[in-house]
Amino acid sequence: MLAAYHEARLAELLEHVRAGFAEYDAGRMDAFDLDALVHRYHRAAQELWKFCAVSGAAVETAARALELLAERGEQPDWWGLAERRGR
Question: Where are the domains of the chain?
Fold first, then answer.
């Protein structure tokens, strides 16, 4: 369950990168903005990995946390967590 969650959220994060390259290719984003977006993706993917790359009893804890969030209709915003503070 946790591996499937990780893969699905990683795919969502990669969509931000795909959209960024489309904006860059269309001339609506410069190289510096695209670079910042890629760095944000990296930070988000790291946070997601830290949550999902657990073992032992922590796997059950992480899975239960996801279940509780789903019951509440919530989900961690990995992209939002990676936003640089103060920008």
Answer: 2-81
